[in-house]
Amino acid sequence: MKNKNKKWVNYCLAASAFFLLVSFGSVSAQPSTENINGVPVDMVMEERLDEYLSTFGAEEGESKTILFDVLDKVSSKTPVATRARAKSYEAFWYYYEGETELAFEKIDELLALAENSELADVKAEARATQVELLQADGKQGEAFLLISDVEIPLANTRMPRVRYYAHNLISRIYADWNRYDDALRHLLLAQQAVNETNNERTQIRKQYLDYSIAIIQSELKNWDGALKTINEAISNAKKNGLEYDLPNFYLHKSNVEAEMGDRDASLISLRKAYDVAIKDDRKYLIPVLLNNYGDHYMYEENWEEARSHLQEALELAKEVDDKWMAQTIHFNLGFIKVHEGDAESGLEEMREAVEFYREEDIKTEVEGLLGELAEAYELAGQHQKQAETLKQQMELMEELYQSDQQQNLANLQQLYESKDKEQQIELLERQNELKQQLLEINEQRNLIWLLLGIVAVFAALFVFLMYRKARRANLRLKEANNLLADQSRRDPLTGLWNRRALQEEMEARKQHGERREAAAHSDGLILLDIDFFKRINDKYGHAAGDKVLIEISQRLQKECRASDKLIRWGGEEFLFLVRNVSSADLEEMSERILKAIAKEPIAYEGQEIFVTTTIGFIRLPFADIPEHEMDWEKVLQVADMALYTGKAHGRNRACGVTDLYVEYSTARSVLESDLSEALNKNWISMVTIEGPQSARKSV
């Protein structure tokens, strides 16, 4: 049917082209739209949508009227950025009204609008809206995997509002997955976006970001940074008359000061939080603050003062019907009774609070309370019950890990596989689209020649647009291919390169040739293994083991230069490919790594995990032996034997094979199987660097 109607299609296109030229004058006569950083918008509608945000949650009827009045006025002539913003708010409106299915239908419409737009701002807002609704709907795994779909267009987004919204959203999701460094990075980018604005919402957003940054800094144990940020938030809130959040700000400041050991300053901040909450009649918050007073005086072992604040908090919690806070206060009051000698009454009050949270099925709260209950049993001398309670806590921790962590990992694996298939299908579709577009270009080029005398300017513009569209389609295909390739070469837990990435690089090294035999500086291999890692898993659980691996990888990345490559080699092993180093540089870097790993313990759920590592290092090529005779895998095998030599001599050290004193043909079999024999025969030399607080020595 399509081929039979080709002449009719060409005729219609010719007529349409002529009509467009004739009507150019009337189009140019339309009112021009304004723009924000080069993005066309309808400024009247944008201001109405700002007004909708300001009234949302206050007067429901008013905010609904504003939103749907804007939606009624939206048409195909409305700039696409404004249309996308209005549709985004519409989807959220239906979701919060409980019409989830309709909300996701609106998301599909928004994504279709973005797909047909070339504006990065529209694509970023559409994808961010989709991710936020998935997150709100409890689909955290799916939301996490779609972050990259937001980040790709976000890199070219120009409107500060969209950049603030998307970076803030991504930060919240990363924080939920305990990726606090990434969360902080996106909060700072959101802050940059807000600093480019100057409207009635600017100070509100700045204040929100300051508070969020302080919370992330606290999670990263950056107490000095958190204190500085929260102090700035408090100062700006007072300066700008935005004091509603001051109780929360002072409460967070109090917690930070307590962590820093400044108990007096912590108490002053807590009193300020209480005074502001009383002044503003924040009844629901006052029991929380009074409970914190109780915690403070319990820490000081001032039981009478602690009980006084907790009893007042309990009455107010009952008054505002906060049954969860009431049970927490009961638990604390019971703990005080145990300290004062009324063990049976106090323990019973604590057990009732634990059972309340069991019935509410809040297992994470139960797990924390069981630890404190075990401490109370110890104070009461009931060691059998202490042991039983600690056993319950360990079983609950394991249950939470099995039901939460492993289930999340399983869901993510399934989602990764699903997304991989979706991307392959999408790539095929885009390739077909590109082929179809090229065919259409050829057909339309013939038509353009027929109309050249009439519509020369229009034809040139048309060819340019079609060329740009095809070029962007090629770029999208290239980006998708690069993304797939990168994912296959990354370790999913730490984000480091994996074995496959190193093998590909070494294969390229072999194919292109490496002229390093005569170089003053060659490359180096540093292989390290975390000491007693199995003990960490056995003692603290696999979740703690994962935390240790992630923290160690972050410390190692700080020691890694831009030219180097850091690989998770497997399990608890990591490997550095260090470019262009001397023997002295390699030794110095190995020593820095020993110190970086052992410099401070890793915090995990209130516990400190002390970690050291053992290292084997060697230069590549080794002893000027050509790599076609002793390739990188054989050199790495020597480094591995050096590592296990370090393990055998007490761990927490780096052992490096530095020189070969005989012909390689003589030492070949020994180097491939038994490093100790080569040492005994004085065929090689080895340098040993002790870990922190140990002296460096040579073997």
Question: Any overview of this molecule?
Answer:
By secondary structure, the protein is α+β, with helices and mostly antiparallel strands. Helices cover 69% and strands 9% of the residues. It has 29 helices and 11 strands. It has helices at 6-22, 24-28, 43-55, 60-73, 80-96, 100-115, 120-136, 140-145, 147-154, 160-176, 180-195, 202-219, 223-239, 246-259, 263-279, 286-299, 303-319, 323-339, 343-359, 363-379, 383-451, 456-488, 499-512, 533-540, 542-559, 583-598, 632-648, 664-671, 675-680, and strands at residues 34-36, 39-41, 522-530, 565-570, 573-581, 602-604, 607-609, 613-620, 653-660, 684-690, 697-698. It has a 7-stranded mixed β-sheet, with helices on both faces. Helix 5 runs parallel beside helix 7 (120-136), helix 7 (120-136) packs antiparallel against helix 9 and helix 12 runs antiparallel to helix 13 (223-239). The radius of gyration is 32 Å and the shape is flat. The termini are far apart.
